[in-house]
């Protein structure tokens, strides 16, 4: 039996246990995967208790997590809001993806040494390429948002060698800083969507438009120009819900193909599963199952 958890605050909504249990069952593996709720100030103590790195007790965490009480140290942990940057500092060793993303969403116990990785970008790219059959190579890609969600996906996108990757953000300084930080990895620039009338790059359609902002979580729509969409555009919202998000609805009104980020959620989990078990799980069935349960 190997023990796993997902840590966050809040965490009750997380679908990670369902996803990883489904992966394991399909591959004939037996795992224990639970949700782990931690207060922000207690992140280090909570993770230490899970990995048995100190003798800190589980009284520091409100948890459903059997592994935190089990004498066997935890094997792997997924990390969600608001702890991805804290996990970056916690890890003993970082993958290239984690270093460049500046955030960790996957921790692995390697004989007592904790390795941090970031699987979000691979999850996004795999969902676009495999599940939606939409090419990225030689295409024009627009990333809306310049926060952590965007940053974590830039390198995997650039590795697909798009013709151009443009970052647009309400704060153009953040978009500029992010674009300049990734210029050595590919063709990347930035634009200000609050002044799109004078921004040439936002006056014509893109092949892929990715919403990496949290606007959809609050039922809000970003004031994007309709010109960025066409019948040949994939509009991808990293958020997911039972109904189309405002971003998806707006894109559909301007003829784009609009999809949400449920596939990204499952595909990033599949990459974490591979890091832990060395096997790639089938994802299409899991995506469909969760979609039906929304």
Order of helices and strands: EHEHEEHEHEEHEHEHEEEHEHH
Parts with pLDDT < 50 across at least 5 consecutive residues: 55-69
Strand content: 15-25%
- The CATH class of the largest domain, by name, is Alpha Beta
The chain-level mean pLDDT equals 91
Please tally the β strands and state the result. 13
Oligomer: single chain
CATH topology of the largest domain: Rossmann fold
Q: Give me the CATH superfamily of the largest domain.
A: Leucine Dehydrogenase, chain A, domain 1
Please give the order of strands in the largest beta sheet: 3-2-1-4-6-7-5
Spatial separation of the terminal alpha carbons:
30 Å
What is the tally of helical segments? 10
Largest sheet: 7 strands, mixed
Binding site for NADP(+): 96, 145-149, 238, 261
Pfam family, one: SDH_C
GO cellular component, one term: cytosol
Domain Quinate/shikimate 5-dehydrogenase/glutamyl-tRNA reductase: 136-216
């Amino acid at each position: 039996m190997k023990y796993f958890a997902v840590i966050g605050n809040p965490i009750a909504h997380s679908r990670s246990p369902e996803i990883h249990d489904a992966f394991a069952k399909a591959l004939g593996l037996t795992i224990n995967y639970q949700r782990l709720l931690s207060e922000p100030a207690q992140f280090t103590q909570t993770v230490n208790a899970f990995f048995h790195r100190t003798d800190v007790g589980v009284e520091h965490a409100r948890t459903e997590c059997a592994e935190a009480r089990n004498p066997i140290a935890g094997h792997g942990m997924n990390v969600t809001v608001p702890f991805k940057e804290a996990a970056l500092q916690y890890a003993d060793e970082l993958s290239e993806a984690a270093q460049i993303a500046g955030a960790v969403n996957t921790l692995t116990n390697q004989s007592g040494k904790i390795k941090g990785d970031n699987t979000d970008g691979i999850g996004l790219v795999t969902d676009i390429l495999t599940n939606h059959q939409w090419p990225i190579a030689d295409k024009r890609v627009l990333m809306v948002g310049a926060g952590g969600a965007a940053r974590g996906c830039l390198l995997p996108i650039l590795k697909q060698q798009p013709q151009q990757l443009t970052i647009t953000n309400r704060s153009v300084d953040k978009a500029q800083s992010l674009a300049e930080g990734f210029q050595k990895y590919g063709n990347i620039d930035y634009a200000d969507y609050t002044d799109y009338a004078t921004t040439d790059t936002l006056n014509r359609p893109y092949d892929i438009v990715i919403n990496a902002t949290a606007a959809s979580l609050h039922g809000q729509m970003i004031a994007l120009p309709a010109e960025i969409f066409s019948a040949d555009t994939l509009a991808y919202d990293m958020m997911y819900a039972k109904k189309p998000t405002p971003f998806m609805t707006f894109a559909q009104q301007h003829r784009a193909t609009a999809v949400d980020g449920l596939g990204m959620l499952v595909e990033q989990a599949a990459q974490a599963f591979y890091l832990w078990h060395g096997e790639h799980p089938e994802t299409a069935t899991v995506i469909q199952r969760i979609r039906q349960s929304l």
